[in-house]
């Protein structure tokens, strides 16, 4: 009996908490004890923030309503609130101090409010415990430089899909920031001080912007960064020491830019780099030693560039690659990349390398190219096929280009002398021809005969040589 009474007593606070959460639940909302009093008001067609919430609320979801305005202390005093979501509303103005009274708030999500184009300096006053702030897709053009001055705990900042033309100065010096999402903005440059003081930053996403300039040592303040996305920008050149100091970097994405050459100084500090994307650029040349210090590299993407050859010295001594992507390049499958075929066969790290030239192996995968050897054992390049023209009637040998040009020239000359009956089925007319002395049509037949003899004496020996070589 005593145990039953004790159990009832112990359960009373829980029952009271559940009852209190449900009792104060706003109209059109659902309150549940699943997460210590969660208030679910999403898709409730609300035009404004409810005037009262349960004091015990730990999370509030107001997503996908029609809220347009946040007044001062819009949510009252909610000492236990940790998560507040206002995604996909029509908020256009946030009164300074709108989030006062929420001392425990850790996560604030206001993504995809397309009419938030301006934030006051004191918008986030008093949110000293805020860790995660999501303002993606809000059409922001700029924010005050000191707007986060009262957010010392902020670690994750979601600013993607806005209209920033520069990296917001507000993030500068924020020592606790670990993740910054700035993709799909209009950022044009990474200045030398844009990322100053971000000593704990691990993840930086700047992909799909308009970046065309990166200053020297622009990332030197990001010593702890592990993931850096710079893909799908307008980068055509990089300073020699672009990535100096990024000794913890594990993944670097430079794909989808306009790089033409790879310098042997860019990656010299990236000793922990595991994945490197250089795909979808215009790379035609890689300096020797470019990957020399990448002692942890596992995956390298070089596909969709303008590479025609790949000297062995570029990769030596990088034998530990787990995967190398080289497809969609105009490869010249000559002896310079025979080593690559052997590497493919031995390590199975590469595949899909169709040859573009020489013509005898064009369209064939490098794995299927057979390299001949000289008597001394040297590799012999695959031959370049001659372009040939075939006669309309069956014949044993194709006519060479030289022979065809000669026959055509003789035929045209004969036509001018009314000797077309000696040339079968031809209708071409050799007109408006400039002669060696500068005269054109209308010269005498004697001059023409002299020209024919001169041409014949020049071309016939060459023609006989071609025919003899073909017969052999």
UniProtKB/TrEMBL annotation:
Instruction: Report domain LRRCT positions.
Output: 329-380
Signal peptide segment: 1-17
Record-linked Gene3D superfamilies: Ribonuclease Inhibitor
* Gene symbol of the encoding locus: NYX
State the superkingdom: Eukaryota
- The protein in question is named Nyctalopin
What the entry lists under InterPro entries is as follows: Cys-rich_flank_reg_C, Leu-rich_rpt, Leu-rich_rpt_typical-subtyp, LRR_dom_sf, LRR_TM_domain-containing, LRRNT
Organism encoding this protein: Apteryx mantelli
Keyword annotations: Leucine-rich repeat, Repeat, Signal
């Amino acid at each position: 009996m005593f145990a039953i009474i004790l159990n009832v007593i112990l359960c009373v606070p829980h029952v009271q908490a559940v009852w209190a959460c449900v009792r104060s639940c706003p109209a059109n909302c659902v309150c549940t004890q699943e997460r210590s009093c969660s208030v679910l008001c999403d898709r409730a067609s609300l035009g404004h923030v409810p005037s009262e919430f349960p004091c015990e609320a730990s999370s509030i979801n107001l997503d996908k309503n029609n809220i347009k305005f946040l007044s001062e202390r819009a949510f009252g005093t909610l000492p236990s609130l940790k998560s507040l979501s206002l995604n996909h509303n029509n908020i256009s103005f946030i009164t300074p101090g709108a989030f006062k009274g929420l001392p425990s708030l850790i996560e604030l999500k206001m993504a995809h409010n397309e009419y938030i184009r301006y934030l006051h300096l004191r918008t986030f006053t008093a949110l000293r415990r805020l860790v995660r702030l999501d303002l993606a897709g809000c059409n922001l053009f700029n924010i005050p430089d000191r707007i986060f001055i009262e957010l010392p705990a902020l670690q994750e900042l979601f600013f993607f899909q806005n209209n920033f033309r520069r990296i917001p100065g507000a993030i500068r010096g924020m020592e606790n920031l670990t993740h910054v999402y700035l993709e799909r903005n209009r950022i044009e440059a990474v200045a030398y001080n844009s990322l100053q003081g971000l000593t704990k930053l691990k993840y930086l996403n700047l992909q799909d912007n308009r970046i065309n300039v990166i200053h020297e040592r622009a990332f030197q303040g990001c010593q702890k960064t592990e993931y850096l996305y710079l893909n799908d920008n307008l980068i055509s050149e990089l300073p020699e020491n672009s990535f100096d100091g990024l000794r913890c970097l594990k993944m670097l994405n430079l794909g989808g830019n306009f790089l033409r050459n790879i310098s042997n100084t860019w990656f010299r500090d990236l000793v922990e780099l595991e994945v490197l994307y250089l795909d979808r650029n215009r790379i035609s040349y890689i300096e020797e030693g470019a990957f020399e210090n990448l002692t942890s590299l596992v995956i390298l993407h070089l596909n969709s560039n303008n590479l025609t050859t790949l000297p062995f010295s570029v990769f030596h001594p990088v034998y530990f690659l787990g995967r190398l992507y080289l497809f969609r390049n105009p490869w010249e499958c000559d002896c310079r990349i025979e080593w690559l075929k052997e590497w493919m066969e031995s390590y199975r790290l590469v595949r899909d390398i169709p040859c573009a030239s020489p013509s005898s192996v064009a369209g064939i995968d490098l794995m299927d190219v057979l390299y001949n050897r000289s008597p001394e054992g040297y590799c012999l390049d695959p031959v370049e096929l001659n372009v040939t023209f075939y006669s309309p009637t069956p014949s044993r040998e194709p006519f060479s280009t030289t022979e065809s040009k000669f026959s055509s020239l003789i035929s045209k000359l004969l036509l001018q002398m009314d000797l077309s009956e000696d040339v079968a089925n031809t209708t071409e007319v050799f007109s408006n021809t400039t002669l060696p002395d500068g005269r054109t049509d209308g010269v005498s037949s004697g001059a023409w005969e002299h020209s024919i003899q001169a041409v014949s004496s020049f071309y016939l020996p060459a023609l006989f040589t071609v025919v003899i070589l073909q017969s052999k």
